[in-house]
Amino acid sequence: MTNEKHSFLSQQIIEDACEWAIMHGVAFRQADNTARHCPFSIAPMTMEREVYDHLRKVTPLITKLISHVSEDHDFLQASLGDMAKADPFFGCLMALHQQAHGDINNSPARQPLLLMRTDFMDDRHHGAKVIEFNGIAAGMGPFGQRATEFHAFMQSQWPQTYQNWLEDSAAVPAENQGLEQLAYAIATSARRIQEEFNIQGKPTFLMVVQKNEDNVYDQHLLEVELQKLGLRTVRRTFDQLSTQLSTGDNQRLILDGVGAIDVVYLRAGYQYSDYWAPELNESICCHTLSQTRLFIEQHNVAVNATISQQLATSKSMQMLLTMMPAEDYARWGLSLDEAQLVKSVLAEMKPVNTDTIGWFNTQANKHKWVLKNQGEGGGHCVFGEDISDKLSQISPEEYDAWALMQRLYPHERETPTIAVRDVEQTVVGDLVSEIGLFTAYFNGEPMTELDGYAGYLIRSKPASENEGGIHSGKGILDSLTLVG
């Protein structure tokens, strides 16, 4: 390895890279309304083309499966009841789901638009396996595409630097249209809704957001892309929507001061705080704002994520689908071959109960497992020896909110890389990566120009760190090159 590999980059290159990131919206908003660039790697990771092709093939099938599971309302109620009792937030979602779908003669008018990110790690021994399904607020597709574009910029502007830090000089960048394909899927769905009402003009896209959120530029990149495709875009919190929505003719959803809405995209709604409005002084937490979500679903509008989709992409459903024989997937329209492809990427999972706790404490290799609850985003996993401590603290009533999952140990990058955070560089020698593949289905049908596939997001982190989120952990934005 050359000495140059170990040397830091010039400040000129770092500033150039950081300014590119800010200029292209790859940033987080600060409390004082300034922006700071996302942390990123200076050169992409490498994956065997065969592994990538397998993930490209299987991920749309996972989305097909989840799409059909999410519309199997009896199955959701029957299979997730215990989890809903153990996790108050999911209990609230299940109650909303029952409200929406409990009346056989009156199903909700919404049309399901499933924008999903399925996250994988390429384990050293077991191959690429699913970490989790993300069916609500499955963002950062725009950042995924921008990371690919950033590395193309580095290759063009600073070719020597790019080559020095590239894992394999023969590696070819993997195409990534995450931003464009998600926008295409949303715009196509919006026009389908609009056509049902025989209306001309710009379709309208409503993004439901969190108040004072810092991850806004990723959202705005998607909005700008939608505007290019002829859509009008608006942003509101659940709190605002609770007083601004009404019903038009033929179950049309109307937003005050804007008019009819064609697509609702939730970048909020995956945690209690998104529904909490202290000034409402409610006797039941979050009732008003969660009813606003239900109200949206009672209208003829494309929705991502529906309450059903959020339930169908939960960790408990992931565990049920993992433990189920492949033959059972036929219920949701998958052939045995398709089912076995899906099963090939599902990592082993076990429910938490008295038997598994006894087994874990006496027989298991504790470092081969991770304990997860139903939470979205970073900070919801327990590792190694800490698992026994956590299991001893969980009451039996809470067991069904948790699951044990095979821990994945991905390949470490063969060469060091430079991570850039807050305009400062660090050499990282043990980088590992997580790949999230985006897919888009509308009413159960693939909705992109790539047969349902819609690009990828790569997040890398030091192997010694457990939390790999760009936003909430030690992760850095990355992109993908292919070899072989």
From TrEMBL:
Sorted UniProt keywords: ATP-binding, Glutathione biosynthesis, Ligase, Magnesium, Metal-binding, Nucleotide-binding
EC number in record: 6.3.2.3
Domain Glutathione synthase substrate-binding: from-to ranges: 204-312
Keyword presence, Secreted: no
UniProt keyword Metal-binding present: yes
Pfam family, one: GSH_synthase
Metabolic or biological pathway, per its Swiss-Prot or TrEMBL entry: Sulfur metabolism; glutathione biosynthesis; glutathione from L-cysteine and L-glutamate: step 2/2
Cofactor: Mg(2+)
InterPro entries linked to this entry: Glutathione_synthase (IPR005615), Glutathione_synthase_a-hlx (IPR014042), Glutathione_synthase_C_euk (IPR014709), Glutathione_synthase_N_euk (IPR014049), GSH-S_sub-bd_sf (IPR037013), GSH_synth_subst-bd (IPR004887), PreATP-grasp_dom_sf (IPR016185)
Protein family per UniProt: Belongs to the eukaryotic GSH synthase family.
Protein name: glutathione synthase
